[in-house]
């Protein structure tokens, strides 16, 4: 079966993490015996380069779609790819589209994304199948669009257990490599410094936590990994809250470095406020390293975090509740922390890439049977 993979996000040498799970999906399909062709766009910087990049990308989608060489078109990021696919469907009604919706596809994060919604709705109705990353997102799609198109669940390529796994015996080397002081324990955050990611609530919560527990100033540090449009606001808030010595920042990292950070931190904090958090793969990656998670009670996170079993849940956008969660974690015994960490690891194994890849394969085999 020949599949045309369509995405406006795909990794490049300059931006290795940009759309990496789309690349992971490609690897899964090839591993399952499918032939995969691509019409993808790698990250461009500057308005002119972006405009030219999208023009070429859209033309490539239509050209390859009309070639008749593909049994199905598998698209990621419906909002930004809907227009050329709808045009293709009009020119060639027989083409079969499988649409994977996630994130801001369904829940726009900023006003400028709202303009794509009519196209997303039309694309979902024209699709042969819809794929969502979680049961939460499946319900969201059904409620918002009421499309008759069948929906299947596939958790965004899953977790690569060859990269993300417990490896704490290497922590002394990691500490040295990242110039961290082993006298401290570390909490961690991985995510863009962008709207809805909750980095601001986390900074506020950590300041509250340290103020309520002054002894923690000499024993706990917060590692925050990520960059984004709000970088300037992040650094300003960090200074305003007096956290320059307590918060350690790293820019975007490759997966092997993220795995090291997940192993270094005692507690992974996932403070998102996004209703469009369709799965939250970083949470599962941390859990795959045996690290407990303190996360917002929202979105696809609810598919895998069980309160007091493999992690803890807090009210989204509430720094006080987040600070309370940190305090409750520190009050646990070492044995209790280890038990939750082990449960987190066991949960993440259910999302192991090798274990779940057959789910994606079965979706496309089902498509072949309906031809």
TrEMBL record:
Superkingdom of the source species: Bacteria
Record key words, sorted: Transferase
Keyword Flavoprotein: no
Sequence ranges assigned to domain Glycosyl transferase family in this UniProt record: 175-346
A Pfam cross-reference name: Glyco_transf_4
Keyword Endoplasmic reticulum attached: no
Phylogenetic classification of the source organism: Bacteria, Bacillati, Bacillota, Bacilli, Bacillales
Record protein name field: Glycosyltransferase family 4 protein
Domain Glycosyltransferase subfamily 4-like N-terminal: from-to ranges: 38-157
PANTHER family: SULFOQUINOVOSYL TRANSFERASE SQD2
GO molecular function, one term: glycosyltransferase activity
InterPro entries to which the protein is assigned, alphabetical: Glyco_trans_1 (IPR001296), Glyco_trans_4-like_N (IPR028098), Glycosyltransferase_grp1 (IPR050194)
